[in-house]
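STRUCTURE:
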């Protein structure tokens, strides 16, 4: 047995160099085959093309026509005619404020206006009487002055009639001034009446638009002051989504572009719409700007500030690649690119999706050839076959 083991070890020692030589030749042959013999692979030429990018962003439900209803006078809330979720029409009574103080003030103002009117009328009547006295005094003065040359009237009589005439004229001037003053008081009293009537109207709070009551913040008996919120009314026909996007896509979004919105409450049912307008201001901290989206129809159930996800389909000219050409290495995104007849992995930066493709922001240039990814590829010589161009025609269902 020992002799047999010795023979086996001796034979292995003799065969070992041969085995090593064969293994080395196989390894050299495999490496030569992999790194020297070109392999035929499919390639795609990169070119800028017109593509429909899916620009996504978070959004909140808002409305163009929404009004916070407040009181315009101070007083205690007397009645509330509507409740949350009630439909209201423009001019409909929403609530009433206890206005007894204003009613008393209005009665007093009307009485003052009536008294001022009577005072003006009475003074005007006295003015007519004074005018008659002035006319009589003037006639008497003219008659006395005509009798002076003949001696039928003395100088004293003329002086007395002249004094009476001047006194009557002065009385007319005084009464005329009194009429102007009383007329001004009457005008002021009537203006005060109109002011109190308007303020009395403010005691009845009416809806400023057609809509739905989305909130009610006060109850009967609360003290209302001007500017304090009573309730909020929203016109559901003016519902919009206010979405946020990074400032880098500012030049790609335009009013009228199609939009798909997915609400958090029903993410499986997208709602169609269009871009309404862009806000001309970028947030200094987040570097985001806002976009208003008008929906073709509001969701069946909605609430202000409800969250949603918005996708804007923006047509632009850019480089896009089918997603099956993208690969990852060590957590980085890249592609296999043809460089001088060999495959080289290069990192790229991705942008927005474009249906089944994706935008390439950096890492590739027009004319580059991207290879279909394989398990082994590093610096492998390749021959490209079935070379295509990465293009996508704008098409949106």
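SEQUENCE:
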């Amino acid at each position: 047995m020992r002799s047999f083991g010795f023979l086996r070890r001796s034979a292995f020692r003799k065969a070992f160099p041969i085995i090593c030589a064969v293994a080395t030749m196989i390894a050299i042959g495999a490496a030569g085959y992999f790194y020297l013999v070109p392999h035929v692979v499919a390639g795609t030429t990169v070119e800028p093309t017109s593509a429909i990018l899916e620009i996504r962003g978070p959004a909140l439900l808002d409305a163009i026509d929404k009004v916070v209803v407040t009181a315009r006078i101070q007083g205690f809330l007397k009645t509330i005619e509507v409740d949350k979720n009630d439909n209201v029409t423009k001019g409909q009574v929403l609530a009433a404020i206890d206005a007894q103080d204003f009613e008393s003030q209005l009665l007093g103002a009307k009485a003052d206006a009536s008294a001022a009117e009577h005072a003006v009328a009475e003074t005007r009547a006295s003015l007519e009487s004074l005018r008659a006295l002035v006319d009589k005094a003037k006639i008497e003065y003219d008659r006395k002055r005509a009798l002076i040359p003949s001696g039928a009237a003395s100088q004293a009589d003329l002086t007395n009639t002249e004094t009476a005439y001047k006194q009557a004229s002065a009385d007319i001037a005084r009464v005329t001034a009194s009429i102007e003053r009383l007329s001004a008081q009457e005008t002021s009293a009537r203006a005060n009446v109109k002011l109190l009537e308007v303020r009395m109207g403010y005691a009845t709070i009416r809806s400023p638009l057609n809509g739905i009551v989305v909130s009610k913040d006060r109850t009967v008996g609360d003290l209302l002051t001007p500017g304090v919120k009573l309730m909020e009314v929203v016109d559901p026909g003016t519902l919009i989504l206010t979405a946020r996007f990074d400032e880098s896509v500012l030049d790609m979004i335009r009013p009228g572009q199609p939009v798909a919105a997915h609400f958090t409450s029903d993410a499986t049912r997208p709602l169609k719409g269009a871009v309404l307008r862009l806000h001309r201001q970028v947030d200094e901290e987040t570097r985001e700007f806002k976009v208003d989206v008008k929906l073709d129809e509001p969701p069946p159930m909605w609430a202000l500030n409800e969250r949603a996800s918005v996708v804007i389909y923006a047509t632009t000219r850019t480089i896009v690649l089918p997603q099956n050409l993208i690969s990852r290495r060590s957590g980085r995104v890249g592609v296999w690119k043809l460089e001088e007849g060999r495959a080289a992995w290069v990192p790229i930066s991705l942008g927005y999706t474009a249906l089944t493709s994706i935008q390439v922001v950096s890492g590739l240039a027009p004319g580059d050839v991207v290879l279909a990814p394989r398990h082994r590829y590093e610096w492998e010589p390749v021959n490209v076959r079935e070379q295509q161009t990465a293009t996508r025609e704008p098409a949106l269902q």
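REMARK: The first strand starts at residue 39 and ends at 46.
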